[in-house]
Amino acid sequence: MDKQEFIETHPEYGYNGTIDEIYQNEFINHYPSDRIYLDHAGTTLYSQSQLDAHFHQLRTSTLNNPHSEQEDSKSLLLIQECMELILSIFETSGRYYSIIFTLNATHACQLLSTLFPFSSQSEYAYMIDSHNSLIGIRQQVKLKGGSFSIISHPLQIYNKQNGSNNNWSFLCMSHSASSPLPNVESNDPYYCLFATPAENNFNGLRSPLDELVRPFINTRDNQLKDFPIPVHCGPSKTCHWLTLVDCAKYLSTKPFSLSLYPVDFVVLSFYKIFGYPTGLGALIIRNESLKLLNKENYFGGGSVEYVSPYDDSRVEYKSGINGFIHGTIPFTTILSLHQGFQLITNKLSYKSISLHTQCLIDYCRNEMLKLNYSNGQRLCLFYDARSNLLIENGYSYGPILNFNLFNIYGQFISCRLIHRIATNHNIILRVGTFCTPGASQAYLGSSKSFENNHECRRGLFCGTNADGDDVLDSGRQPLGSIRLSLGWMSRYEDIQCWIHFLRQVILQGIGIASQLTSSVPIDNRCDEEKNLILTHIYIYPIKSCASILVKEWPLTSMSFLYDREWMVMDQNLNPLTLKRLPALSQIKPSINSEKNQLILNATNHRSFIIEINNDSTMIKSTVNLNDGITCHVYGGEIEQWLTKVLGIYATLARRTNDSQMTLANEGAFLLVNEESVRQIRSNLNEKITHERFRPNLVVDKQYVNESYSAYSEDSWKRLVILNESDIELKVIGLCQRCTVVNVDPSTGKNQSHLFTRLQTQRREMDTLRANFGILLNLSKTYENAMIHVGDQIQIVK
Which residues form the MOSC domain (predicted)? Predict the structure, then answer.
């Protein structure tokens, strides 16, 4: 469907035809035009008008600390206006609710957990699809000896049709035992807390608040005989339930009415709504509930009228919400919220935002459902239950899709692999479990026993970037999923680019990659073994920096002389790598063998010379790396030079002479076959040379008219470089490739799709490993040995 047809069939799209103009004005100056942003549930994009208005206010106003000013001061008035604006978004006012500003929604949950009057009789109940921030509150009730319960949605939500389809009751999945206490009758009231997300982070499910929250609200005045929520301690004259709603995701595209649902507490993060500022959230508290909270855990500047400095005989807290606000609030940051809401509520409206994002997400899902492989295998499995029956029972979904992708054989493709490939194509989305472990396990089909399995424990959890298998059981059990989420500025073009990516890169590449073997067995013909020659030799004195092309080079007992002997480190003495900082490739070292000097060169900077055999005066400290290698860390002028060249603090470190390993990640030598390079770059519209793979040794056929198999090196066991020393190298494995191959060594720019090609053609079955080249070590020590360009190569089986 082209754009014009889409607009005609979706009149709710685009804010009356202004979306492209809005995007041009608000985002084009600070957001790359070729990047597709589909992670608005993580954070949405901040707008130019909000930044301009906020910084104009800071440039033209003098704002003092609110604690230093009178009640009619400018800072206080602006803050009060901002708080009333926030409360008006919730259809309430300061008469009924108060605000405590926090770092984010998580901090608001943590704060509430310490203020809430939990006791040994208390119960904390939360929905199964709650964010970790809500789940974490249970730690406080446990400390007080209370219990907690996990409430689940009806089974139909998870597409599990056990029993009658008409049974849409909430379920109690688990209840912890409270601490054993003497059985003492008491008429003293105690307090329990129920928490739910208004919209969950996993798939955007929005619960029916009338059925889920309203019953708790109604118990304030009336005792319900048949309480519909399966908590352990039902509401009574002594058991009082309060309610907490997590609105962090919900508020990005839809308002929450505290007039309609006057819950006791709301938590939110403002960056979820308009991207800026980060580090600012809020805990909104019903004024009637303030008197129940425990303000005596702590006091600080601003929360007390007077304290006795000598003993605790006198502490006078401020009244109302002010007794809970310790220290100076971030008043300049808070004022930026006013400009953010101006765009959301004045130029647009929550109603138009909701309609706009909903039509886009529905269109995206429908287009994805149409995608199939040539054998009829569907591409997508969605983790939701969108249906008319669901809507009739009060449920709905926000603008989020959660799913996994199949390959052509019906096996799940690693979600982490999809994330890498999407990033390689400038598409930003998120994979994992999204800090919602209950929803993830419910939809992915795992269980508590599965959770304790070793394979799962080393798999995919929220926030991890470590490599590992995230699909188990021969491709049938995923440990994570893919989340695509939209924001108010999402456009038709974003969806089209995503669908194009799925068609061209997944359906025609990654999804059928398992048909291709990861290696080609070597041919038994003798001429292939005898007619290979060494065409290029490279050394990399500084790890991750540019190479030096040489005609011949001496060996040490481990590797090439000076190869990966130095490395660049950051202020925390962690190695800086090409993946983290592609600009390293533009530091071009050279070696003056006659003077024993390492010379560092960079465009528009003077050269820096290091005396290789006389660098002791440069050493300022020593560091032990995780792999057991010890390095001397340089200080002084080299720090200044590298920091100026790279734009961040950096220094140089050199491995010590007694280290038994080089700074190479694995093998001492990396060999690349030129025939394999020709194969991998075929039909790839890029200039790809063997330098992309950062080899030490490059081999090729000796005669142009010869032909032999690409990737034959995969099955080599040993090889001999035929010269005066006949140097034997043993193969220790294939070289696993990462996105560094996308970095053009001549420019330092990352604009290639080579990594995607490797994942398509060179990925091992059921893993994230895409291999290219072989890793080698010396079979023994060679005295005074050299390797030369032109040396013949003999393969030993």
Answer: 640-796
Q: Which residue has the higher pLDDT, 162 or 285?
A: 285
pLDDT digit string (tens) for 179-206? 554 444 568 899 999 999 999 999 999 9
Inter-CA distances, 458 with 416, 455, 465, Å? 14, 6, 12
Q: How far apart are CA 311 and CA 313, in angstroms?
A: 6
Asked if pLDDT for residue 700 goes beyond 50, the answer is yes
pLDDT digits over 74-96, tens only?
A: 888 899 999 999 999 999 999 99
Do both 382 and 507 map to the same domain? yes
pLDDT of residue 184: 46
Residues 598 and 636 in one domain: yes
Residue 7, in any domain of the structure = no
**Starting at the edge strand that comes first in sequence, how are the strands of the sheet with 430-432 ordered?**
380-382, 400-405, 481-485, 430-432
Query: How many other β-carbons are positioned within 10 Å of the β-carbon of residue 519?
Result: 14
Same domain as 507, residue 394: yes
* SS3 assignment, position 738: coil
Instruction: Verify that 467 and 331 share a domain, yes or no.
Output: no
Cβ of 779: how many Cβ atoms within 10 Å?
A: 14
How many Cβ atoms sit within 10 Å of the Cβ of residue 554?
13
Mapped onto helix, strand or coil, the DSSP state of residue 81 is helix
Whether the predicted pLDDT of 708 surpasses 80: no
Least confident of 166-170, 421-425, 548-552, 737-741: 166-170
Of the residues 638, 661, 684, the one at which a domain ends = 661
**Domain count along the chain:** 4
- CA 459 to CA 471: how far, in whole Å? 8
- Whether the full predicted model's pTM is greater than 0.90, yes or no, is no
| Cα four-point dihedral sign 246, 248, 249, 255 | positive
pLDDT higher than threshold 50 for residue 336: yes
Same domain, 236 and 268: yes
End residue of a domain, out of 343, 360, 394: 343
Output the CA angle 701-783-717, nearest 5 degrees: 40
pLDDT at 514: 57
543, containing H or E segment: strand 542-543
Q: What is the 3-state secondary structure (H, E, C) of 332-393?
A: HHHHHHHHHHHHHHHHCCHHHHHHHHHHHHHHHHHHHHCCECCCCCECEEECCCCCHHHHHC
Note the helical H segments in 250-299.
271-274, 287-290
CB atoms within 10 A of CB 136: 15
Residues 777 and 760 in one domain: yes
Using CA atoms of 722, 727, 728, 730 in order, give the dihedral in degrees to the nearest 10.
Answer: -120
Q: Quick count: other Cβ atoms within 10 Å of Cβ 163?
A: 11
Helix axes 331-341, 74-89, angle to 10 degrees: 40
* Contact indicator for 216, 241 with CB cutoff of 8 Å: yes
Q: Spell out the residues 6+ positions from residue 245 whose beta carbon is closer than 8 angstroms to its own.
A: 195, 196, 197, 198, 213, 256, 261, 263, 265, 266, 267
Domain of residue 637 covers 566-661
468 and 529 together in one domain: no
Is residue 462 in a domain? yes
